[in-house]
Give the backbone structure.
Amino acid sequence: MECKCFVCGTQSKDRVYLECYHEGEKKMVCVRCLPPLIHGAH
Ligand SMILES: [Zn+2]
């Protein structure tokens, strides 16, 4: 499965990705982009 962060668009294989749902769609987000999402930043 291809991992591409929907926030920053990176596809680095040595970065950790998590599955999430955004706007009703299942997407992948890298851990570096996760904290802003958790804190509700836009
Ligand atoms: Zn990212």
Observations:
- Residues 18 and 29 are 5 Å apart (CA to CA).
- Helices lie at 34-38.
